[in-house]
Amino acid sequence: MAIAKIAILTSGGDAPGMNACIRAVVRASLQKDIQVFGILNGYEGMVNGDFIEMNTRSVGNIIHRGGTMLKSSRSKSFTTTAGRKAAFEQLQNRNIDAVVVIGGDGTCKGALQFTNEYAIPFIGIPGTIDNDLYGTDFTIGYDTAVQTAVELIDKVRDTANSFGRVFFIEVMGRDVGSIALAAGLAAGAEDILIPELKTDIHELSLKLQNSRQKESYIVVVSEGDDAGGVLEIAAKFKQLHPDYDVKTLVLGHLLRGGSPSANDRILASRLGTAAVDALLNKNFNVMVGVEKNSICYTPLSQIRKHFVSINEEWKHLLDVLSY
Fold first, then answer.
1. What is the pTM of this model?
2. What local confidence, expressed as pLDDT, does residue 311 receive?
3. Cα–Cα distance measured from residue 180 to residue 228, given in angstroms and rounded to the nearest whole number
């Protein structure tokens, strides 16, 4: 099967670096005389036929831009048999030979289901700030999200120091605590609460009491922590310490925005180019990733959530640096 015409889409939550990846896929394809169509609004656009032809100028001056120029969505229609049939017909009508999708585990699962039903190969590229996919050490957007979180936490530290406050700061991470762990360590947080470790409010209370000589206290909370969201955790803490000046902050979607870091731009460019190479080498229905700084390919059937592994070194680091 010769690859002459492909389509590309972004799906699920946006991540800084998606535009850099789109740029790489388009330019690597054109260099190999492959025609490229962009699909607007993710899988929903595939169902509805929202296709645009792309060229070198289409992706000019976008490597530094956050978000995704192709837009994104979480398509309900694509989860139905009728929706996927409509999507297949849209691809057939344009003689599309293969599809490149950029997104998280839901995006890859959608691609796998489609390829099980229709003979059009897909290549997945990991684009999610959560860094939670098996098959790659890093996902597009994670490095930028961590850097953004650190910059914001640093700013909060200034006002926390001025008033001797305890700040509970929530970052994204419903299932996986990668952002909270990295940002908390880099920002010098007094504690980090993540889904992978059980949270004990009384233990947290004792920890902060033992370091009462500090000017301020920052506790970074992953939104999926087992003790609840940041408001609930702060309220429980306030009950134990009504004399503390306790504040909360939810960073939320601020972490998705902004210009991608140099690392994310390079990673996105590598993965986008590798996706086209996979198609030319007939390495179909895989997700492109990077492990130990080398490009790797993992079957879509094996892609799943990858949770943070907290080893003894990490635990020791947290205990020592938060003292």
1. 0.94
2. 66
3. 15
Tokens representing 58 are: 């289409």
Do 132 and 139 contact (CB within 8 A), yes or no?
yes
Active site residue 130: yes
pLDDT in tens, 167-179: 999 999 988 899 9
Q: Is 158 exposed, middle or buried (0-12, 13-18, 19+ CB in 10 A)?
A: exposed
Q: What is the mean pLDDT of the chain?
A: 92
Structure tokens at 110: 């959608």
Which one is catalytic: 14, 97, 105, 130?
A: 130
Question: How do strand 122-126 and strand 286-291 relate by DSSP bridges?
Answer: parallel
Tokens representing 30 are 């054109």
CA 15 to chain centroid: 6
Beta bridge partners of 51: 39
- The first and second tokens of residue 131, run together, are 């860094």
Domains of the chain, each with CATH number or no CATH? 5-141+260-302 (3.40.50.450), 142-256 (3.40.50.460)
**Token pair recorded at residue 252:** 């939320």
Helix (H, G, I), strand (E, B) or coil at 131: coil
Q: What is the pLDDT of residue 211?
A: 62
